[in-house]
């Protein structure tokens, strides 16, 4: 069953004659438990699509349905619960410089009001999962790029979201580190059952990790299918 569904979703910016269509009647569905890749050049509409999924923007027409809930018409108050079920991983990691690895991973749990003992238990478990137990007290500047992104992934998973959005999450990393982070994302998918949407301009990333892929171009989905179908020559 679909966990994310775009139904003829369009997003237009501006008013009057000064309008620009960033997404044009996009329809796609991400199945629960899969790794879904979204690939496209700069300006294709990838960020807009991400912002529609995590409810930072609303569609101009059509609908976005998350876990059976049409979020295009949902009141702002109820969007918070939807956002809580979606973990975000970023290109530039977005870690707090002034917080330790532990503190960064604990942050969303503090915000959610978890008691201290449960936070400690959860962060300890996540540190082990991403292989950074010995770095608990390090600060981000003491970490390699790959380690920073593992912290980013642990933080995104802290509240146990059903969906992980990885937005250009390997674009700042070298190929070897990229492979490492992709292996971790694969484990997140297989061992934790998290549905992952990988947004990237890097074909190789999608090819190596995704089950299915949608190709965005000029705000439209121009192709969607299995990685094999989309990337094999006609
Ligand atoms: P990508 O992430 O694939 O680079 P974006 O979703 O950022 O693409 O942008 C798609 C198009 O929509 C671009 O031409 C961009 O300039 C335009 N766009 C995105 N956000 C806005 C906005 N807030 N106002 C006006 N135009 C926007
Ligand atoms: P901040 O409160 O500014 O985020 P830190 O990032 O240093 O500060 O740590 C966050 C909180 O987690 C602190 O209250 C600290 O006592 C606790 N903490 C940090 N690391 C550990 C750890 N390895 N085991 C148990 N508690 C920890």
From TrEMBL:
Keywords: Amino-acid transport, ATP-binding, Cell membrane, Membrane, Nucleotide-binding, Translocase, Transport. The keyword Translocase applies. GO terms for cellular component: plasma membrane. One of its GO terms (biological process) is amino acid transport. GO terms for molecular function: ATP binding; ATP hydrolysis activity. Residues 4-234 form the ABC transporter domain. Homodimer. Forms a membrane-associated complex with FtsX. Part of the ABC transporter FtsEX involved in cellular division. Has ATPase activity. Belongs to the ABC transporter superfamily. This is Methionine ABC transporter ATP-binding protein. The chain holds residues 2 to 235 of 346 of the full protein.
